[in-house]
Structure formats: C-alpha cells, structure tokens
C-alpha cells in the first residue's frame, strides 16, 4: 500500500507539469497565444476599471519582482467591449519610469513591450486604459530566453 501511495505521490508533480491548468478566462487564453512561441509565461494581471480622469495617472498598481539580466515581455490585451486600450507603465523602486507601452509624444500604443532588467528588485507595474476610459483587459508577463 505504501508503494502505491509513493508512486502516486511521485506522479502528481509530473502530471501537473505535463498537463498544466488551463485558464478559464478566454481573454487570458487569447492573450497567451499572442505572447510568442518562445515566451515563458510567468504571471497575468486581470484589469477592470471604470471611467476615470483623462490625466495620464495610472490607476491599477501591482508589485512584481524582476531579476537582473533577464529579458521580459509584457503583453497587453483589451477586451472587445472596452472603451479604451490597456496601457502599461513600469517603475523601479525609486519611482523612476523604466518602460511604457505608450509613446506620449506620438500617442502610439504598443501591444507588447520588452524589457531587459538592469537591476534585480521589486518593480511597480501600473495599468490603465487610454484617456482614462473604462475597460477590461489582461497583462501577461513572460520571460524571453
């Protein structure tokens, strides 16, 4: 009996690696497909915000640990019924802007950005929708080998 229990216990991690849990959210699944074939999924952020001000103040904040000399890809996907497009801003521990998915000069919004981390630490990841509009979306953090 102990042998069967031990075999079952050893097979469980292998099963979880081979058959990872699929996301129940269709937007997350769709966004995962757009991260690229070589991207290694790390985390997703589901963002849903109501109407806000038009000032460029990001309303959704999360902390994320990033490692030095690692290349990350941040992919943003917006649901079809959103008024605005999901945008991202990344700040370091000194609140200095490190990367952004919107070019403030041209107004161009990028669906993903890549970042090579220069310093290990906790970074602030800020999300919002263009012009403070309401919307829902997902941001996915991946590691690029």
Overall description:
This protein is an alpha+beta fold and 145 residues long. The chain has one domain: Jelly Rolls, CATH 2.60.120. Helices cover 17% and strands 41% of the residues. It has 2 helices and 8 strands. The strands form 2 sheets. The chain has a 4-stranded antiparallel beta sheet with strand order 1-8-3-6. Strand 4 and strand 5 form a beta hairpin. The protein is globular, with a radius of gyration of 18 Å. It starts with a helix and ends with a strand. About 3% of the residues have low confidence.
Number of strands: 8
Q: N-to-C terminal Cα separation, in Å?
A: 43 Å
Structure class: alpha+beta
Strand content: 35-45%
In terms of per-residue confidence, which ranges show pLDDT below 50 for 5 or more consecutive residues?
15-19
Order of helices and strands: HHEEEEEEEE
So how many helices? 2
CATH architecture: Sandwich
Return the CATH topology.
Jelly Rolls
Query: Major sheet: size, sense and barrel closure?
Result: 4 strands, antiparallel
Describe this protein with a few key phrases.
single chain; 145 residues; alpha+beta; Jelly Rolls; four-stranded antiparallel beta sheet; 8 strands; globular
Q: What is this entry, summarized?
A:
By secondary structure, the protein is an alpha+beta fold.
Give the topology.
Blueprint: H1 2-18, H2 26-33, E1 40-49, E2 60-66, E3 71-78, E4 86-91, E5 97-100, E6 112-116, E7 121-129, E8 135-144
Antiparallel strand pairs: 1-8, 2-7, 3-6, 3-8, 4-5, 4-7
């Amino acid at each position: 009996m102990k042998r069967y229990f031990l075999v079952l216990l050893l097979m469980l991690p292998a099963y979880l690696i081979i058959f990872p849990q699929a996301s129940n959210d269709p937007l997350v699944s769709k966004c995962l497909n757009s991260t690229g074939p070589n991207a290694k999924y790390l985390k997703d952020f589901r963002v849903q915000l109501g109407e806000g001000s038009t000032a460029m103040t990001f309303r959704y904040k999360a902390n994320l640990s990033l490692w030095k000399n690692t290349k990350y890809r941040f992919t943003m996907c917006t649901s079809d019924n959103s008024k605005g497009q999901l945008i991202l801003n990344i700040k370091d521990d000194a609140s200095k802007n490190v990367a952004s998915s919107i070019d403030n000069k041209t107004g161009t919004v990028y669906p993903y950005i890549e970042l090579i981390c220069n310093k290990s630490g906790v970074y602030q990841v800020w999300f919002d929708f263009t012009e403070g509009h309401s919307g829902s979306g997902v941001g996915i953090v991946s590691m690029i080998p």
